[in-house]
Specification:
It contains 5 helices and 4 strands. The chain is globular. The chain has a single domain (3-103), classed as Glutaredoxin. Strands 2-1-3-4 form a 4-stranded mixed β-sheet, with helices on both faces. It is an alpha+beta fold. The relative contact order is 0.20. [2Fe-2S] cluster binds at residue 30.
Length: 104
């Protein structure tokens, strides 16, 4: 595991809920990242760690390899990859995302 992967691994495993996104929770820089934040707020997530991939090219590329998932945002809960904004939306509408977050 290279240095970037180790940094990503530490972020994923060291925080309950982590969203790798474009921009910040206050200022999302793409619609998908903005939607992901809104979904997490609707789930009542208080402890959210966000990582702005636009500030670190290594993480921006490395996160795609980490989960073998080509797009950003990416949500991790309790060290497990959940998915991107489309999957988050589907899970939220089905009531599954709330369960994953509260169970973890």
């Amino acid at each position: 595991m290279n240095e970037v992967q180790q940094r990503i691994d530490a972020l994923v495993k060291g925080n309950h809920v982590v969203l790798f996104m474009k921009g910040t929770a206050q200022f999302p820089m793409c619609g998908f990242s903005g939607r992901a934040i809104q979904i997490l707020k609707a789930c009542g997530v208080n402890e959210l760690k966000t990582v702005n991939v636009l500030e670190d090219e290594g993480i921006r590329q490395g996160i795609k390899e980490y989960a073998n998932w080509p797009t950003i945002p990416q949500l991790y809960v309790a060290g497990e990859f959940v998915g991107g904004s489309d999957i988050m939306m589907e899970m939220y509408e089905a009531g599954e995302l709330q369960q994953v977050i509260s169970a973890a």
